[in-house]
Amino acid sequence: MRGLMKLATIAAAGILSLGIYTTDAAAKYDYTNYSASGLSKESSQCLDCHRKATPFVVNDWKRSKHFYNGVGCYECHKTDESNPAAYDHYGFTISTLVTPKQCGVCHPKVAKEYMDSIHAHSGLISQKAEAKSGGNFAVIVMQMMGWDKNTVIPHQTTNGESTWDDIINDPCWPYAGVPNNLKTPRPKASAVIKIFANWGCYSCHGTKIEIAKKTKDKVVFDLRTWPMIGAGTINPDGTIGNCAACHPFHSFRLKIVRAGIGACGRCHESEDHPNYEMFGKSMHGAMFLSQFDEWNMDAPAIKAGQDYFAPTCGTCHMGAVYQGDKMIYAPTHNPASICKWKLGMWKLVFVRKAGRPHPGLPSVKYPTDGIKNRERAFAMCTQCHTKQWVANCFIGGDLTMGVLDYFRRVAFQVERDLEKAGLNTPLDRKIVRDIGAMAVRPTEIAMFHYAPGYIWWEGIYRVAFELVEWLESSVEPRLGADYVSKYVSWIKKHVKKVEKYKKKHHIH
Known about the structure:
Elements (H helix, E strand, L loop, with lengths): L1 H27 L12 H13 L1 H7 L3 H4 L4 H5 L9 E3 L2 E3 L5 H4 L4 H9 L1 H15 L5 H8 L11 E2 L2 E2 L1 H5 L20 H17 L5 E5 L2 E4 L32 H6 L15 H6 L2 H9 L21 H6 L2 E3 L2 E4 L11 E2 L7 E2 L5 E2 L2 E5 L4 H12 L5 H12 L2 H20 L5 H21 L5 H28 L1 H4 L5 H15 L4
Antiparallel strand pairs: 1-2, 3-4, 5-6, 7-8, 9-10, 11-12
Helix pairs in contact: 2-3, 9-11, 18-19, 18-20, 19-20
């Protein structure tokens, strides 16, 4: 209860701070006269309608630096006919989507830095993985169920009652971008499960936004691909990335992304990469939750010990680094700027090398070098800690990578041997993936985020248990005790004891 009250206090403080921000803006500009802020005539015309049609959007924008600087609706949404998502809106050619191409008009350096990052390529990389796995992420669920690409799900029913008429007669139906293969009461299973994949995985990695229908004055997006606000969105205009994934419209507050609670935590969470949960259980998280309302998270180049007193995701991975009053590393839009290791892939781990092809998509090259990144990380952390403190943490984490990778490599080898013997099942694939994605990878991440429970009980303990449980209960009956004893010596001895016991007591 106390924790909830504390979070409520922090939330209230945040609301108050937003109120102060709005008051400052109100003092500077007359909201009833948008030309006072230096807005273009086009944006002023937009606001004549939208302050009534979408007041929330307009009021959110009033709290932004865009408002302060006379950047309005048209400056961000304008486009031309070469953009597949363009349409005519009361005489203006605009796009509902605002992509890094449009943001880059005013923020060219930031946009390029972001689009060069692995963050922005996460959609392309996962799309490649999807294609290799058989068409879409549905393959994991479908293989376990024994479904193929042509399997049709039962009629749209719940509780034994037909729901199809209630779906197509819903008042939302005319506005939704429903693809043709879902306009049927008996769609293919893969088409429906694709919704889960896009709204789940791709909501963070980034969908390939598809246009379901287009007229001169309207663009309707496929509901499976929009509005998923993924960092690696593949946009109709050919760009990759989505600035709004971290800077949600329309206030674009630095405070939102630097807090990390939502902007980073909405994706870097859950069982396979619980960075957000780890942060909350670390000493850094404890300090953040108790002091956040006192920090200046909107400062342009935020400084440790002045504007904030414990790192968050954004300040640590992307913030400026100082030596005294001198900035030695500028803020960056490459979130991996402090990362020595590539930890995000469930199949492997390695030290980053500048120019090294990404294993999932070789055309994508790593922009920075792991050792250089570690230099930045060392400088970042020694703003607050001694060099020995930081070195012990980093090198301690480094020394665990080989052991963790060993568990994963054993799982892969066993899976290959099962497949070679013709004895593998879709459940083996699921188990191996869980060992790599839900056990090994989170533990690797935990070693550099310092949450005790995720390092031990949810970490190495879980990794070892899940691997041994699979070998003892599932693999041994198929490949034999001699085989599994190569990895876990006691299993062979245990099997002999069981056989002796069964023989003695005539158990078959």
